[in-house]
Design brief:
Elements: E1 2-5, E2 21-28, H1 30-33, E3 46-53, E4 56-60, E5 63-67, E6 72-75, E7 81-85, E8 91-98, E9 118-119
Antiparallel strand pairs: 1-2, 2-8, 3-6, 3-8, 4-5, 4-7, 6-9
Length: 124
């Protein structure tokens, strides 16, 4: 697994009105996608996951989603989630983002509980 964290700036900066900071970039190849995962959450960031290979099973909050290459999943901050390979070849790319707020949503929330946290290339 390759994981890159964006260093925090030491100097104070004014918040940008549109907000948003890139906190981490992670690429998990099929070799590391086989490692066991546990349910976890991130209070300080939301995550955007792109499935780049294989097939995976994703538990997000109280829902269960099957994903294949080209699918995108959204994990809002504070939401429990995990991922498991189905065929042994799950590969993903992930962006961790923070310090944003969309109109009508809480901080670091992309989809909330009213919308499905998956965009599937199979959707019509």
């Amino acid at each position: 697994m390759l994981q890159y964290f964006i260093p925090r700036r030491q100097e104070k900066t004014e918040p940008v009105p549109t907000g948003g900071k890139l906190r981490s970039v992670c690429e998990i190849d099929a070799r590391h996608g086989k490692l066991p995962r546990t349910m976890h959450q991130h209070e300080d960031r939301a995550e955007i996951i792109l499935v780049t290979g294989g097939r995976g099973s994703f538990n997000i909050d109280t829902g269960h989603y099957l994903a294949s290459p080209g699918d995108v999943l959204f994990f809002d901050s504070g939401i429990l989630h995990d991922e498991t390979t189905i065929d042994g070849d799950l590969a993903t790319s992930c962006l961790g983002v923070s310090d944003f707020q969309l109109p009508g949503r809480r901080a670091n929330e992309m989809v909330g509980r009213l919308y499905a946290p998956q965009l599937s290339r199979r959707a019509v």
